[in-house]
Amino acid sequence: MIAVYVLRSEASGRYYIGCAQDPKGRLLEHNSGTTISTRGRGPWKMVYVEWHETLALARHRETQLKSWRNPAYLEQRLGIGADNL
């Protein structure tokens, strides 16, 4: 099983979308600064996770979520707005 996850920066409120077999471990990597794309933008909090049977399905869903460029739309569709944290 592969997870598609959404992180929210507690500092800036920005979102990061990714996929991993171990989303909790991946969150630790993001918060430790070993992930270039999120370094210096945390701390990060996991606000959404969904599981998929295959990597192909997870990547497809990750791409779909990333296409929702408007954070308000992402929050509305996934129910992850600041009011829900």
Describe the protein.
By secondary structure, this protein is α+β, with helices and mostly antiparallel strands. It contains 3 helices and 3 strands; from the N terminus they run E-E-H-E-H-H. The protein has a single domain (2-84), classed as 3-Layer(aba) Sandwich (GIY-YIG endonuclease). It is 36% helix and 27% strand. The chain has a 3-stranded antiparallel sheet with strand order 2-1-3. A hairpin with a 5-residue loop joins strand 1 (2-9) and strand 2.
Characterize this entry briefly.
Helices cover 36% and strands 27% of the residues.
Secondary structure topology:
Layout: E1 2-9, E2 15-20, H1 23-32, E3 44-52, H2 55-67, H3 71-78
Antiparallel strand pairs: 1-2, 1-3
